[in-house]
Amino acid sequence: MIEIKGVSKKFDNYLAVNDISINIVEGIVFGLLGTNGAGKSTMLRMMSGVYKPTKGSIIIDGQDVYDNPEAKKLLFFVPDEPYYIQGGTPRDMANYYKTVYENFDMDYFYQMLDKFGLDSKRPMKTFSKGMKRQLSILLGLAAKTKYLLCDETFDGLDPVMRQAVKTLFAAELSERDFTPIIASHNLRELEDICDNVGLLHKGSIVMSQEMDMLKCNLHKLQVVLKNEADEERLYKTFDVVAGEKRGSLITLTINGNRTCIERLIADYDTVYAEVLPISLEEIFISEAKGVGYDVKKLILD
Amino acid sequence: MSKSSFWINERWNFKTRHASIILNFMAWFVVLTVVTLVSQILFREGTVRNLWERTAQIIYGQTALTIGMNVIVGVGMAIEAFGWMNNMSQVDMYKSVPVKESTRFAYINLNSFIIYIGGFMINFLLEIVLLAVNGAIHENVHMYLIYMALLSITTFLGTYALALVAVFLTGNSVLAFMGGAFLNLVEMILVLMWGLGKSVFYAGYDFNVSIDEYFLGIFTPICMAINSMGALLDERYAGYLKATFTTKMIWIAMVVILVQAVVYMILAYGLYKKRYANVAGRRIVFEMAKPPIEIAILVVAGFATGLMMEILGGRKVAIIVVIVMVVILHVILKMILDSKIKFSVRGGVSLAIGAGLAILLFAYPAYDLGGYKTYVPDSSEIEGYSVIFNYYADYNYYELREDSIDDVNSTAYIYDNVIVTDEAAVEEFLDAMEDAVHNSDDDINEVGTVRVRYHMKNGRSKYREYNVNQDQYIKAYVATYSDINYRKGVNPFEYNRNIVEYFVNDEGASWNTSLSCFSFGNEGTDQNFDKDIYFRLYDAMEADMNERDVNVLVGEAPIGVLGVDLAINDGPYRGNYVNIDVPVYQSDLRTMKIVDELGWMQKTSSDFNDSISKIEITKTRRYMDDGDVYTDEDSMVEFDDPKDIEEIMKYAYSDEINITENCMLFLDYGYYGSIVTTENGGGYHGMYFAKDKVPQLVLDAFEDKANK
Lengths: 301, 708
Known about the structure:
heterodimer; A: alpha/beta; Rossmann fold; Alpha-Beta Plaits; six-stranded mixed β-sheet; four-stranded antiparallel β-sheet; 14 strands; B: alpha+beta; 5 domains; five-stranded antiparallel β-sheet; 17% strand; globular
């Protein structure tokens, strides 16, 4: 388990991460969501031991991660912009990682390279951005570490490759003790893969929950009221996270289970009312709006 | 991480450091060996064997080049070793893998050393082979080379460790290189600035002396190394090694440099551990490092500006410009160091300290706050003094010892060996100097300079230069000349007895003598003559100089300069050139007798007078302004009447006379003449008059002109 306890990171006078506490249990896919500049990369770098937290601690399987090779053996970090040895080939990269990761599986790596159609002897400078991404993920998987920390890793992958990578993740999850932690602002990519998500905004954690629970407890209600005077009562009845009105159509993001919402809305005289499942993106937008990160404001201001 | 993983990482890191390997190979082999050989082939003549021999000798003998190369390689390799920290992608990769930071620090540095040793030793062995093949291996050359190799290795370690400090303080390679170079050269830069300051503010400051101080720093490896290499160089001559040489300084230097390397490495490791991983590309990594860096830059730039403006506009202007410049520089530095293009004068403490130190550093010598210019010790404080009277009369003195020849610059030689200790002479001399510093004004005529080394009773020395008028000059000279130690000290014969042996015994020696007379039209009379005559002349010159009455110097002009040039063409001291130049007076009876015998004074000045078409005499005014001596031309009169010319020429002395050290004693510097002749299609000769011997018709002509 990765235990993040009251972690803050300050760069000079800029507070990049502010007092975050999350526990990431084993055997799940954890999605670290965040607005731009929310502190996702900083968080991952602290989790991989690149940065030392200014405050708090990050414990991986009982060991502090910073400057601790024993803890770092358990993780592999795939950064947003991976480094490739100048003039090097995939084989050179694998050779390097083989020196630092005792369990690095060369056979697996070469098999995967074949499957992904990447030449192990071809200089990496001739690779496309997507090919480099694939390579970095394959290196991470071949390291056979318990935790794989990916920063915006799916960016640059075409849909087929994204699916292929997700399949690989699924295979690893079923075969061994494996916990990928994926940071992204591309929510659609995480929606069908993450078991848990943590939402970061301006260096703070807005929420951290299981995906199923999140979806179960948060719904979208679309309603057209016969009597407009009921609108104010509507906001009081429900635990509204976010709401908007277009014409007479009111759309609310509401905390609560579906049955309860349906029961409550039945008390209103409506022209149209429907409770809809919410997407991760909508959860993200509504939660972000709750902490003052309003898309409309951003555009209109 | 297991031990085997350490070596695996070590090997892997080694493989990736192409830049260091190339730098090292280029430095030691291409630059030092190939460039030296090619330069020898292109610019020197000689047999192939000679070229290789010279190359080999230069490679192992050019110690400053070797040390300089060590510094360049040390700084370059430090940047290359940890340059990955300036790239965030590399930081992500290297810092996230399971390697302990201390382990990484250790194997990267170990690699640097291995790479250095690899390139250096290949070149070192090559040098030995080159020397052996060309028969240049001399008795102790092996030990010499080993000492040099050891010193080079320690110097590399020291400069590398010091450069690491700059690498971890800055976030990009260019600044790291500048910082590494600056830290390694900081002591030399400071001494250079101090020397420059002295030479600007204390006119004629003797840089020959301070150049030794140049490498006396103890905090930078390069100073220690060059200083100790200097100790070796002193023992070397003409590319050959002395049978024995002092190793104590080398050992001391190596130990000090190693201590430095350890201290700087610990400091570098502390910075490495403290450095955030996200600082790639930053100018300065640590906020708290900015003020001292800014202050250092403000002080250096402010002081340098002060020096320049002192020359261009004087002291007051300089101080104003320093203040303005420091404030502007502070704002610019804020922008650079903070990476923000924004006007800000924040950081007032740094500005105040930087500006204050810059002004103090400038004003201290400029306004002589330390009393440097007016310092004259009490006679009870000094053992004695050494003095050089004429700045332009730098004769070279040579000393041949049993086992080597050391050339000695006359200034350093006199400062070190010719010490006047006679109490009466000391009192008189100090009186003259006191008079010079307390009774000088900015409008004195006939100004000269006197350079002194005071040998203090506490074992230290103080070096000064005074501007003196002619009376002060004569008083100091007469006092000094009355001490037989001085007279014998400046007499080159006393110290050249061994040269005589070469004349007698060494067939490889050749010599040439000449008498350059100061009578017009009689300069440059050259003669070659045999050993017997040489010895007679040598003995006569020595006896005459030792017994010469000081009043002769005050009252007579020398007839010319007698020179003996000795060249050693073969044997272990081949290639050396020794010369003796001494002024000869009419009253030097023994010498003049031989000169007459040789017929060297046949031509008379009357022959020359016939060719004169005109004499132009300029009345000059010499004065001091802020320590510098200036000469103004007040007015000029011309004489073309043959009778006037004949009268003037009775009192005229060739300006060639001015090259002798005691010309200040009797020449009148208030008048300077140009003689225009018809010889060889027209020519000019400079002339002086003796003190109080300016012809009346010249004085009258100037008075007439003034009245008009």
